Amino acid sequence: MSASFGDSTMQQDAARLKVTHEGDIVQVEFTSRKILDEGNIAEIGDQLSALVETEHRPRLVISFAGVDHLSSAALGTLITINNKVKNRDGQLRLCNISPQIFEVFLITKLNTLFHIYPTIKEALESLRSGAQTGRLQ
Amino acid sequence: MKHLKLQAGPRGRRESREKNVGLWCSEEFPSQMAEGRRVEEKILSQCRKYAYGQRDLFALKLALEEAICNAIRHGNKSTPSKHVRVKYRITRARIDVMVEDEGSGFDPAVLPDPTADQNLERACGRGVLLMRAYMNNVVFNAAGNSVTLTKFNENYSSSDAPICSTTVAFG
């Protein structure tokens, strides 16, 4: 099943995420190449929070495919989401991060906080098996 | 809303060209990110004309975003009546950008290390780290309400023959 998050009005006007369910795992992709803009970040944070809060022990994969820029504000939003997922005893995986953006994670050492995988397939596999094969650090 | 003004007149422009140094340009805008982003794009557009590389442009966009966001949010507390001033000078070889706010400033030396284990889960506090990582030079003034970023064009070599200084489109 594949659907944009939110009601039809949000999809037209403000949906920043494409949400897909793979069993009990929620896959999220960004619909904007730049998750930098302050308005985008606030909306993305709200939509991700709503997703996490509707799940019991949420298992979430966020794909950065097509994202070509971000800022520390976007990192802050991801950290907030990660904390919410952990508080609900869930798990978060990030994947498809371009080398240039991955460098930002390296500089900030957030590669040690987040579980980052090269592809969505490997991210899903890590959630299913619990193994960390292929994790980028 | 246009606040652009040149710091040098026509004579200064001629002198700048002869000495192969760019003009300092200045913009002042209210504490709104949309305004800040307009200035960012104007600066990046000039850098593209001077053949700054993709890595440089990524770095500049990131550092400018952090500096301007800090000025608006932390310096001016997002108070619309307070302004941010951005001075910049672009040549083929390098770019210098000063971002100044109307706040009381801060001491960058006492910022917590955001890469320390105990701070990794904090949602903020990485802007200065990223500026320093991506720029060749980052200098704060004594008051701490102004930061000057410098980035060298990785595509530039001294054998290139710069032919003109920065000009800025008005209007």
Describe this entry's structure for a reader:
The complex is a heterodimer of chains A (137) and B (171). Chain A is of the alpha/beta class and 137 residues long. Chain A has a single domain (2-129), classed as STAS domain (Transcription Regulator spoIIAA). Helix content of chain A is 42%, strand content 20%. Chain A is built from five helices and six strands, in the order E-H-E-E-H-E-H-E-H-E-H. Chain A has helices at 8-13, 38-53, 72-87, 99-108, 120-129; strands spanning 2-4, 17-22, 25-30, 59-63, 91-95, 116-117. Chain A has a six-stranded mixed beta sheet. In chain A, helix 3 (72-87) links the parallel strand 4 and strand 5. The radius of gyration of chain A is 14 Å and the shape is globular. The termini of chain A are far apart. Mean pLDDT of chain A is 86; it is low at 1-13. Chain B is of the alpha+beta class and 171 residues long. Chain B has one domain: 2-Layer Sandwich (Heat Shock Protein 90). Chain B has four helices and six strands. Chain B has helices at 10-19, 33-49, 54-75, 127-134, and strands spanning 5-6, 25-30, 83-90, 94-100, 137-140, 146-152. A six-stranded antiparallel beta sheet of chain B has the order 1-2-3-4-6-5, with helices on one face. In chain B, a hairpin with a 3-residue loop joins strand 3 and strand 4 (94-100). In chain B, helix 2 packs antiparallel against helix 3 (54-75) and helix 3 runs antiparallel to helix 4. Chain A binds chain B through residues 36-38, 69, 71-73, 75-77, 79-80, 82-83, 100, 104, 107-110, 112-113, and chain B through 33, 37, 55, 58, 61-62, 65-66, 69, 114-115, 120-124, 126-127, 129-130, 133.
